[in-house]
Design goal:
ATP binding, 6-stranded mixed β-sheet, P-loop containing nucleoside triphosphate hydrolase protein, alpha/beta, 60% helix, ABC_transporter-like_CS, disordered N terminus
Length: 1385
């Protein structure tokens, strides 16, 4: 068996299997990006000798490396232009600015312009018959066909290798021929091999570069088209993102292989002809056996695709469940639900592993058959020739082996890929053609007509005027299957007539006027804003704007990735005075001060590092800074609390914008009252417009009743005592965002303490970047996880024996061919060869199956260990590690362990053994070659080190620059109306092109680096063959070399061309994948939340009483709390006793420590000193965490539900029977809804975070959990935003009702954000700056003089306003009278 030759597939676009993996798993990225490991892992990674000798930190500034286009012809095609980059990469870390400038022919603006220009010509010439393939051909076709000449030349040269090998072996057979002829044949063969090595890299360089250019051109063209589409046609972001990420990728996949669609059959015919010359009709048996591999591969691919569809379901389910539980990890810990959740995830994992095991078996068999296919095809060919009576000679055998080896890669790999990728590219081309055919947003307004319309109104102050306007949204496109489908959808929409969203709209807004728009959900408020912006289709009526300088603040704030300053300026020049005026008006001063980098703080994608209120204020600040004439504001006040909202309304909307025409959509009726005019919108029509007092009296309007009710209630009754909303994420980001990390910390804590729970600087923890090689300990621990000592020894022996038997089979062919003519006809020769081939097939399958099984077991074991370690980690771990970073371990890293690592590792091992076998045979045949082996080893090591050091850095930087290209498209689509409102289309198109060009520079270096390595290794292999060939000719007589042995030697050495570079790249891939192993191993050793000290205390104390806590008494003695990695206590010396059965409200300003109090009670963070918290006279730090948290109930601030069933969300342990669950569901009034509305009843589905249930229903589920536990101590972290009145009333009744209340005998601690919800509690605790400053009944605290420094609670109530203060005092008095009456009785 000869030549497992897989040239150039590692730096090519991934195959269909990898693409399917990438499409199904959003976290999966190319393996070269896996270069960051935790700090401990870095300690185990040893630098190579070259890195120890020469690695330096990067200089502050480095000049760019010279580009390819400025170099000589020799430098271009020997890839010497990469030498400076490789040299720098070996010595130190590369910097993005060091990469060469983009080549002129790769520039995105030029490529996309050419493509769109040709498409426009095609549309103008052919109309509806325009075809995108013709436009694409005119741009790329002719150059690609010229590149096909190089592909054809390579095919001819490959055939020439076999022909010349045959002649050389014939020379060896005839000992009477002159040495001169032998040297000439050796020279000719060396020339063919060197030419093959050079052409091979020319071929793939041209193909991959063309694929890159097509990708760049189509992505830029799609983006530019997006900027001109109606937002109704861009509403399906998934369709467009799929075009860019998947469809366009098909062209990059196809470009290197497309020529093999015609070269494959041609090469097969040539091979068949030349083999027919050698072994007559037996050539058809050999080629037929080779062709049989194709249907076998198709069968494997079909089976694998079916497995993949099933596997993806369970994998996605597992990843979603892990993500869901990590997002709600605070709730998991508060409820002590780690064990049932780990059990559920492991069940999903086991089902996933079943399909992975089946897929791994298929992969193992496929790898083994590919390895043995050369032996199988030669067996068919040579035994058939033997049975036909033919005489096998060395020239016939090894010439045919060379033909089969060269044809095998083309026929079984490149040709199927060409057919597959071309068919996929054709489908993708049709989808992109359909997209480019979508109608662009038309300017339905004529400026001249608008001006005439405005002049006819006779009022120059009018800035917005609509008369009898009827507007509709386009239906949008839900499928891009083909252009015909798109046109059919659009034509059907036209025939059915427009679906009117807004009708008979009459509106006038003047300069300096504020019009507030209100109405029920779905009444068309946001649509009216879009109609003014020109985003909707105008069916009838007239619309005119007095100015084109419009600012827009969308309902969902659109944040651009960049700094706070970038988002506010939005491309405008920086005016410092105006900038800070805007910051103050938009209540952002405090936020800017808290950010470590101030206005230069980097904001994550979509503003994930900001709270909802911060995002809303930032978007508003952008609009204000624009200093427009017209302001369209779509509900900018809903995400902020009452205090901030009042500031924005008074200082911004009615302050700095008072002279502007303002259109304000809002649900906050207190602000509607302050508008100049109110527009009431219901069912797409204006029900009333005018002053608030008039509109609220609109007859027949249901919403007008809500306006009247609001006017009658005291102001600010729901005012928050918090100063403002806080970010749930870190307050700074000093490092750029990685392409694979979402910087977001989901948390169910109250906002006042979330920032405290990060580290001392508010930063996320950083992962170190790997330098050097993975340590041997990592490999040892990986295989130890998957197999014992015996299995490892068996595996190692099978790998050695398998290669040995394959080599013996080929040696037997050489031996057979050297026998005399009579002995060659002995059947024993054929039987021995057949037996050796069968043993090769069996061993190949056995060792492959064993290796993949060991890898499968390792992946299973490491996942279980990591899951357990992560779930048992303290909460601080989740607060300093972003959700995306944790998910990388559970998705990308685990998936690489499951699928890519075993396949790549096994492939590398096979290649390594083949290379070793080749060198052994070379030394055995020509001992003098032993002198070259050290030189070969040094050269190999040097090139491998240089390549890995450089390519890893290049790929990492390329991945970082590619991420913004892909993320920019959905980001722009989300804010498309904002971009158009600000007139920023050209700037965004230019910015996108710059991002593409930046990525293209890096990607071009990556493919060049792969060519740099491949060229040198292949040319080196060719030179080695030259030495061997000339040495064999020169030493023929001295060593008595026979033609069979020389044929075996040269055939083996020929396979080094391609095999050597493949082995180097696979070794680099293995090392990259082993980084994932290192990352997973690191997370298996995380320090647990329950320390050994706590375990020993709990064991010493013994089991808890069954009914604990039976009273609910809580006593704190000098309790303090400090967050990890900080020095300042957030709670200090709190001493208080809470009697059993009392209802206590805990209040305080933002940052007072309210939620820290909750964390101390549940030991989310351990308080001190020892025994400072006692519940029913038992110290909480002497109780196991699972027991403590399971004996206390909590109703969290944000009602969090987990993916699963309703039963699982209420009772994940399965401790309670159906009757008890139904009882609590009935108590929270969910039973009736479930019985009548849900077929699944208790098994009804709950989506991630309960997204298929309303907020109110989720809060009722949380209430049901607390009732089901039936504990004597309940903690409620009150929701900051008001819930629906019915749900709120139900929760309050459960707490307060002394007769039928479900918590009537329990102690209830409520962390309050609204004073009106706790004013009738038994006791109030007031916290400030981590200290208990007041404790008593609400009435007693309100009786204090506001001027008294100790009257904290009284001042909070007074700040709410006189009306609210009186109502609260009356409620407290009523509660006090009830309490005193109860005491008297």
């Amino acid at each position: 068996m000869v030549a497992l030759d897989r040239k150039d597939t590692t730096d090519l676009p991934p195959g269909p299997e990898q693409h399917e993996l990438a499409a199904s798993e959003k976290d999966t990225i190319p393996p070269y990006t896996m270069t960051d490991v935790p700090a401990k892992a870095a300690a185990d990674i040893k630098p190579t000798i070259f890195q120890r000798l020469s690695r330096k930190p990067p200089p502050p500034t480095s000049p760019p490396c010279p580009g390819r286009q400025d170099r000589s012809f020799l430098s271009k095609w020997t890839y010497m232009y990469m030498n400076p980059m490789v040299s720098r990469g070996m010595k130190r870390e590369l910097l993005p600015e060091e990469f060469p400038q983009i080549e002129n022919e790769d520039e995105a603006r030029m490529l996309s312009s050419r493509l769109l220009n040709e498409w426009d010509k095609e549309v103008k010439e052919r109309g509806s018959g325009a075809k995108l393939w013709r436009a694409t051909w005119r741009v790329f076709g002719w150059r690609y066909m010229l590149a096909g000449l190089s592909f054809f030349a390579e095919t001819i040269v490959k055939i020439g290798e076999g022909v010349l090998l045959g002649y050389l072996l014939q020379w060896f057979q005839k000992t009477d021929k002159e040495s001169r002829e032998g040297y000439l044949l050796a020279m000719g063969m060396a020339f063919c091999v060197i030419t093959h090595a050079v052409l091979h890299h020319v071929v793939f360089f041209l193909g991959m570069r063309m694929g890159m250019q097509m990708r760049v051109a189509f992505i830029a063209a799609i983006y530019r088209k997006c900027l001109a589409l109606s937002i109704s046609n861009t509403s399906s972001t998934g369709l467009i993102v799929n075009l860019v990420s998947n469809d366009v990728q098909r062209f990059e996949d196809a470009a290197p292989f497309a020529h093999f669609a015609w070269l494959g059959p041609l090469e097969l015919l040539l091979v068949l002809y030349f083999m027919y010359v050698q072994i007559s009709w037996a050539a058809f048996a050999a080629v037929g056996a080779l062709l049989m591999v194709i249907p076998m591969q198709a069968a494997f691919a079909g089976r694998f695709a079916k497995l993949r569809k099933k596997l993806v379901i369970f994998r996605d389910d597992r990843i979603k469940s892990v993500s869901d539980m990590l997002a709600g990890i605070m709730v998991v810990k508060l409820y002590a639900w780690e064990l049932p959740f780990m059990k559920k995830i492991n069940e999903l994992r086991n089902r996933e592993l079943g399909y992975i095991k089946h897929a791994s078996t298929l992969r193992a068999i496929n790898e083994a058959l590919y390895f043995a296919s050369s032996s199988i095809t030669s067996m068919f060919g040579f035994i058939t020739f033997f049975l036909m009576g033919g005489v096998l000679t060395p020239s016939r055998i090894f010439t045919c082996l060379t033909y089969l080896t060269n044809a095998r890669l083309t026929i079984t790999n490149f040709f199927p890929k060409a057919v597959q990728f071309l068919s996929e590219s054709w489908i993708s081309l049709q989808r992109i053609e359909a997209f480019l055919s979508l109608p662009e947003i038309g300017s339905t307004r004529e400026l001249v007509e608008e001006r005439k319309f405005l002049d006819s109104l006779g009022d120059p102050s009018i800035m917005i005027a609509i008369r009898d306007g009827t507007f509709t949204w386009g239906e949008g496109v839900t499928s891009l299957e083909s252009k015909q489908v798109v046109h059919q959808t659009l034509s059907e929409t036209e025939k059915s007539g427009p679906r009117e969203i807004l009708s008979k709209i009459d509106l006038t807004i003047r300069k300096g006027e504020l019009v507030g728009v209100c109405g029920p959900v779905g009444s068309g408020k946001s649509s009216l804003a879009n109609a003014i912006l020109g985003e909707m289709d105008r069916v009838s009526g007239r619309v005119a704007l007095g100015s084109r300088k419009i600012a827009y603040a969308a309902q969902s704030p659109w944040i651009v990735t960049g700094t706070i300053k970038d988002n506010i300026l939005f491309g405008l020049p920086f005016d410092e005075k105006w900038f800070w005026a805007v910051i103050r008006a938009c209540a952002m001063e405090r936020d800017v001060q808290k950010f470590a980098n101030g206005i230069h703080t980097l904001i994550g994608e979509r503003g994930v590092t900001l709270s909802g209120g911060q995002r809303a204020r930032l978007a508003l600040a952008r609009a204000v800074y624009y200093n427009a004439d017209i302001y369209i504001m779509d509900d900018p006040l809903s995400a902020v609390d009452t205090n901030v909202g009042r500031h924005l309304f008074e200082k911004c909307i009615q302050g700095v914008l008072k002279d502007k025409a303002r259109f304000l959509v809002t649900h906050q009726l207190q602000y509607v009252r302050g508008c100049d005019r109110v527009l009431l919108l219901e069912n797409g029509t204006i029900s009333g417009i005018g002053p608030y007092d008039e509109v609220m009296m609109t007859p027949g309007s249901p919403f007008a009743g809500a306006l009247r009710d609001f006017a009658a209630r005291p102001a600010d009754m729901d005012q928050s005592v918090d100063d403002g909303e806080e970010s749930e994420g870190p307050t700074t980001l000093d490092e750029p965002l990685s392409q694979d990390e979402e910087v977001n910390i989901p948390s169910q804590m109250s906002s006042d303490d979330s920032a405290n729970s990060a580290n001392s600087t508010g930063e996320l923890s950083k992962e170190q970047v790997i330098q050097g090689s993975i340590g041997a300990a990592t490999y040892y621990r990986y295989f130890k996880s998957g197999a014992g000592v015996t299995a490892t020894i068996v595996l190692a022996v099978s790998l050695v024996v398998g290669e040995g038997v394959a080599d013996v089979a080929n040696w037997w062919l050489a031996h057979w061919s050297q026998e005399n003519d009579s002995d060659k006809q002995r059947p024993m020769n054929a039987w021995v060869f057949f037996a050796l081939v069968m043993v090769t097939v069996i061993l190949s399958n056995g060792r492959a199956l064993l290796f993949f099984y060991v890898s499968w077991v390792a992946g299973r074991a490491l996942f279980v260990k990591m899951l357990e370690a992560v779930f048992k980690s303290p909460m601080h771990f989740f607060q300093v590690n972003p959700h995306g970073r944790l998910m990388n371990r559970f998705s990308k890293d685990i998936n690489l362990l499951d699928e890519m690592l075993p396949q790549t590792f096994f492939d590398f091992i096979q290649c390594a053994f083949m290379i070793i076998g080749t060198l052994v045979i070379s030394v055995v045949v020509i001992p003098y070659i032993l002198v070259l082996v050290p030189l070969i080893g040094v050269g190999f090591y040097f090139l491998r080190t240089a390549y890995i050091c450089t390519s890893r850095q290049i790929k990492r930087i390329e991945s970082v620059t590619r991420s913004p290209v892909y993320s920019n498209i959905p980001s722009t689509l989300e804010g498309l109306s904002t971009v158009r409102a600000f007139g920023a289309e050209t700037r965004f198109a230019n910015r996108f092109v710059d991002l593409q060009n930046d990525n293209t520079r890096m990607y071009f270096c990556f493919i060049s680096c792969a060519r740099w390595l491949g060229f040198r290794l292949d040319v080196g292999s060719a030179l080695f063959l030259t030495v061997v060939a000339f040495g064999a000719v020169g030493l023929r007589d001295a060593l008595g070399l026979k033609s069979g042995v020389v044929g075996l030697l040269l055939t083996y050495v020929l396979q080094l061309t391609g095999l050597l570079q493949w082995a180097v790249r696979q070794s680099a891939e293995v090392e990259n994948y082993m980084v994932s192993v290192e990352r997973v191993l690191e997370y298996t050793e995380l320090p647990p939340e329950e320390t050994e000290e706590h375990e020993s205390k709990a064991a010493k104390r013994g089991d808890l009483p069954e009914a604990w806590p039976d009273k609910g008494e809580v006593e704190l003695n000098s309790m303090s709390l400090t967050y990890p990695n900080t020095t300042r206590p957030v709670l200090r010396n709190i001493t208080v006793r809470i009697p059993p059965g009392t209802k206590v409200g805990i209040v305080g300003r933002t940052g007072a420590g309210k939620s820290s109090f909750l964390q101390a009670l549940f030991r989310i963070v351990s308080p001190y000193p020892h025994g400072c918290i006692q519940v029913d006279n038992i110290k909480t730090d002497e109780i196991r965490l699972s027991e403590l948290r399971s004996r206390i109930s909590i109703i969290p601030q944000e009602p969090f539900c987990f993916k699963g069933t309703l039963r699982f969300n209420i009772d994940p342990f399965g401790k309670y029977d159906d009757a008890e669950i139904w009882r609590v569901l009935d108590a929270v009034e969910l039973k009736k809804r479930i019985v009548e509305g849900l077929a699944g009843r208790l098994e009804s589905e709950v989506a991630e975070n309960g997204s298929n249930w309303s907020v109110g229903e989720r809060q009722l589920i949380c209430l049901a959990r607390a009732i089901l536990r039936n504990t004597k101590l309940i903690v409620m972290d009150e929701a900051t935003s008001a819930v629906d009145l019915h749900t709120d009333a139900l929760i309050q009744r459960a707490i307060r009702d002394k007769e039928g209340g479900m918590f009537k005998d329990a102690t209830v601690l409520t962390i309050a954000h609204r004073l009106n919800t706790v004013i009738d509690y038994d006791l109030i605790m007031v916290l400030d700056d981590g200290q208990l400053v007041e404790f008593g009944t609400p009435y007693a605290l309100l009786e204090k003089d506001v001027a008294d420094s100790g009257a904290w609670f009284a001042r909070m109530v007074a700040e709410m306003g006189d009306d609210a203060r009186e109502v609260l005092k009356q409620t407290a008095l009523k509660k006090e009278m009830e309490r005193r009456g109860a005491d008297i009785q």
